[in-house]
Amino acid sequence: MAEVVIDADAWQHASRIRWPSSEQAVVVYEGTTDADSELLRVDAERHEFRFAQVGDRLVAVMGLWPGVNGGDRAREFLAAHESFHIAAQFYGGRIPLAYLEVDPILVRAYAEGRAFDGFYDAIDTMHAEVARGAEDVDCSALEETYAALEEGARTYLNYKIFWEWPAEFYSYSVTFAGRLGEYEAFRARLFPDDTGYRLFTAGVKVARMLEAKLPRAEWQAQVADGRSMLAVLAATYQCRLVLDEGPAVTVVRVGIP
After folding, report:
1. Mean pLDDT of the chain
2. Exposed, middle or buried: residue 145 (CB in 10 Å: 0-12, 13-18, 19+)?
3. Does residue 57 belong to any structural domain of this protein?
4. Are residues 67 and 128 in the same domain?
5. How far is the first Cα of the chain from the last one, in angstroms, to the nearest whole number?
6. Cross-strand bridge partners of residue 50
7. Which stretches within the chain are classed as H helix?
8. Residue 141: which domain range?
9. Looking at 94, 109, 127, which one is the last position of a domain?
10. Which 8-state DSSP code applies to residue 116?
């Protein structure tokens, strides 16, 4: 068990988190296959991550039985990522109705990530230009690859981007402190045979692009108010992307699954 405090420099709206008690930290457990508690019992055949409010504490559970690479650093990184989901997103922000859930059929169809390689390539190219000092970058490849996705693929991608990009940037910031190359090598091998890892590295690169133009507190405020980082990127770099994110709500409590 570990307790994870949300770092107020990496996430500058940590003060918005509606902690259920004076204990302002997420309790993180590593689940086991034979736990008495259903919340803590995990499957030996797949990675599982879940979170809930239990009593007056926010709790995250990590099921890592299939294995992770990276030792203690990997566990610390994942604990930061999952803690961010429940604390900063569910209890510290607003969630568009469109992103409260995703069809499991879409998860099965697109989780391996190959459908999005062109989209991620476009982000890599834009990030490289910004890293070289360009103030304005060409969005055309990003626009074209996004528009070319099947409707179901876009629905899945938008959902994952909303949840995963801010959490990934947060865990990258507190674990790697801006060392992008080291982080990318770590993320690529974190899970065995993880073909979907570029979803996460793309999010870090988008955050770096946003920080080239906007103060961290500014773009993070937009995200906390219910905008996805992709929507903020499109507005900041004048990319023609249409995301129908709809109204956002405040989640009062995350129950035990």
Report:
1. 95
2. middle
3. yes
4. no
5. 19
6. 61
7. 71-84, 104-110, 117-131, 140-147, 151-176, 180-188, 198-211, 216-224, 229-237
8. 96-246
9. 94
10. G
- The verdict on residue 256 lying in a domain is no
Q: pTM of the prediction?
A: 0.96
pLDDT beyond 80 at 257: no
Q: What is the pLDDT of residues 92-105, one digit of tens each?
A: 999 999 999 999 99
**CA atoms of 250 and 97, how far apart (whole Å):** 10
Look at residues 146, 168, 197, 202 and name the one whose alpha carbon lies nearest to residue 83. 168
Query: Residue 14 class from Cβ within 10 Å (0-12 exposed, 13-18 middle, 19+ buried)?
Result: buried
- 254 lies in some domain: no
* Token pair of 178 as six digits: 């801006």
Predicted confidence (pLDDT) per residue in 212-250, tens digit = 999 999 999 999 999 999 999 999 999 999 888 889 999
Residue range 198-216: mean pLDDT, rounded: 98
